[in-house]
Amino acid sequence: MTLNTNILLTTLIKIIKTSTGILITIFISRFFGNDILGKFLFGDKLIIVITAISSLFSRNFLIKKSSLISNDIKSIAINYIMYNFLLFIIIFLVLIALVFSLEDIISLKLNSTEIILFLFCTFFFIINYVISALKIGKKKVIIGEFYDKTLFNILFALILVFSFFIKFNSFFIVAISYLIASLLSTLIILFKERISYSISKSYFNFKKEFIDSKYFYMTSCINFIYSNIDFFILSFFIDLKTLAVYGVCTRISNLLSFIQGSIRSIISNPLANLFKQNKLNEMQDLIVKVSRIIILIVLVTSVIIFFGGKLILGLWNFDDIDAYYILLIVSFGQLINFIFGNTGQILNMCDLEKLNFKLNFIFLFCYSILLLILIPKYGIFGAAVLNASNYTLLNVFKSYIVFDKLKIKSFSLIGKNYVN
């Protein structure tokens, strides 16, 4: 398939994933209430962050690794999963201890039972995460993206609707439905791929793999914390309904980041191979093709959000003007992130993952301090403005680094053979 066809089909999978996720939040808002929606968004974001921290071998590392080896993923997937599982057990026990010890000290949006239910889902997501990344590395991008929470979202939506029609409409039922959907999606993927459960040490050198992946892992953790820390800090200062407004606005704007994710999945394998062969001009030509697709998506999305934002937010009964302005602000940050977002992937695939980690860490530290200062005074408006400005500064700075180190423009619409 051509680049455009690959991106189109992978983006379609991402749209299915995102649209089902958005429909789930609309359903919960309409039939369970926005308080329950706020709790659900808190639990969902908690799982995203814990999955990233528990995934010792990050998505980018697995994509790059599997694209450069000849082994079938069936032979190595279970080994990656098992090492991730060992780390998850440690993190799980630590978190449970913290939840029970801090429950009476700090105001959490979920109680200890609800947090434990969501944490159990994390292991199933880790399995899906590993297999998805390995499939993408083997150029099975469409299947890999389908495994990455798209299948889960479809199952979760069906189970949630079923539970509502049999008159179960509490948050506990939402959490149970989430757990069942994560289990079923994992079982389907394992059955489909016929993953072997025998661990073969000949395929896997833990010490070497860990050393090779450490910066990928740390960058992955920081990226997921980066994307969600504003939500978690807000949760200590605002009520559940206001938290739901911010969560929905960021989720709508994140539609662009999901599309960007499909583009990254497509170009990751070619970037790693072209860099390995020192074909920098070909890398730049690939980026130009991708940039032309990006600008079309940005223009269409900008028009939809600007003119249809109020109508979209009405689906959640968020009819006040404040929600619309929050959506516009966070969407601006995601538009910039979408345009220049391939910079991080270029750094990762071109053996500059250590530098990428350092940049992300510095920006995350500054971002966190500013959030703690501004959120108590300005609430969701302070969080939204910081979110947009921080994404803008980070991506512009990374674009400069990519050009400085590789003489490649991370976003360009015209020309060929720029590289000196």
How does this model look, in words?
This protein is mostly helical. It has one domain. It has 14 helices and no strands. α10 (255-276) runs parallel beside α13 (342-349). The longest helix has 54 residues, at 353-406. It is globular and about 60 Å long. 47% of the residues are buried. The mean pLDDT is 76.
The computed structural class is mainly alpha
User: Mind summarizing the main beta sheet?
Assistant: none
**Total of helices:** 14
Number of discrete domains: 1
What is the average of the pLDDT values? 76
In terms of per-residue confidence, which ranges show pLDDT below 50 for 5 or more consecutive residues?
none
End-to-end Cα distance, whole Å, is 31 Å
Helix content: over 70%
Total count of strands: 0
Instruction: State Rg.
Output: 21 Å
Order of helices and strands: HHHHHHHHHHHHHH
**Strand share of the residues?**
under 5%
